[in-house]
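Sample intake sheet
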Amino acid sequence: MNEYPHTITFQQKTKIPDGSGGYTEDWATFKVADAFVQPLTGNKLLIAQQLQSKINYKVFMDFDSEINSKLRIDYNGNILKIDAPIDQGGLEEVLCLLCVSEVSQ
């Protein structure tokens, strides 16, 4: 069994020149990674919401120090805002991302 069976895309906000000296902001691919995406339902969702409101996904992946809450995740067209990146166990081996689903744009 594959520990990280899902593929996720991290996106970061990027400034795109508009040709008139200004720019617009949009999301661009920052990094693609293998992960385990766990939707929280029922009791797990209730417990997570007691600790942090609106958390409805946990994403586990290999530790990566570049991942932060300024990024977002595209998982099969579902946009997940990273609320808190947590070094699971404190050994810089596994990263747990507490996420909130957003409406895709």
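Comment: The first helix runs from residue 42 to 51. The chain has one domain: 6-14+26-102.
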